[in-house]
Amino acid sequence: MNIAPIYEIFAVEPLSFTTSPVIVVTVQTNPGGYLRGEWFLLVPENEGMLFAQRVSLNDSELPPGYVTFDGAWFLNELREQAVAKLRSYIFETREHLASSYLRGATETLRTDESRLVHMWMRGLCITSLVEMARTTECEPLIKFLDWVGTLPRLQLAPVPRRRVPG
């Protein structure tokens, strides 16, 4: 199997965060011919947090059968691993509220690159986005994140109140 490097981006149900956590998954075939992927979890708390994992799968060792172990399957597996890490993080950091946050399934919504652009321009998870660009092996993601790093940040200012006569 030969898979060119690709990535997908998912927004996660807020789970008490002011901005949704984001999951980025990558997959490609490495020079040895087996699947290699990564997941990144950006949690917009404090200055932002990044969790990451690289995963390999030698698909030649898999017996033929009921499931097709292709790039789509692998991307989904990586997304599920990132969701499990987020749920574990919530359990560890919100012990007394975790059961209410984690009562149901954690929803992920496929989104596009604009999600990461919004984060960068709002000043969210800046260090995490830079670290993801430095550590990913996915060339298209590196190029995109390098471009994101050239974008300006939004200048936020309060709106002055207008004087109302009378």
Write the layout of secondary structure elements.
Layout: E1 6-12, E2 22-29, E3 35-43, E4 49-57, H1 71-93, H2 95-101, E5 108-111, H3 114-122, H4 126-135, H5 139-148
Antiparallel strand pairs: 1-2, 1-5, 2-3, 3-4
Care to describe what's here?
The chain is of the alpha+beta class and 166 residues long. It has one domain. The chain is 36% helix and 22% strand. The chain contains five helices and five strands; from the N terminus they run E-E-E-E-H-H-E-H-H-H. The chain has helices at 71-93, 95-101, 114-122, 126-135, 139-148, and strands at 6-12, 22-29, 35-43, 49-57, 108-111. A five-stranded antiparallel β-sheet has the order 4-3-2-1-5, sandwiched between helices. The longest helix has 23 residues, at 71-93. It is globular. It starts with 5 loop residues before the first strand and ends in an 18-residue tail after the last helix. The model has no long low-confidence stretch (mean pLDDT 88).
Strand content bin: 15-25%
Global morphology: globular
Number of helices: 5
Average residue-wise pLDDT:
88
Major beta-sheet overview = 5 strands, antiparallel
Annotation keywords:
globular, 166 residues, 5 helices, alpha+beta, 22% strand, 5 strands, five-stranded antiparallel sheet, single chain
Summarize this, please?
The chain is α+β, with helices and mostly antiparallel strands.
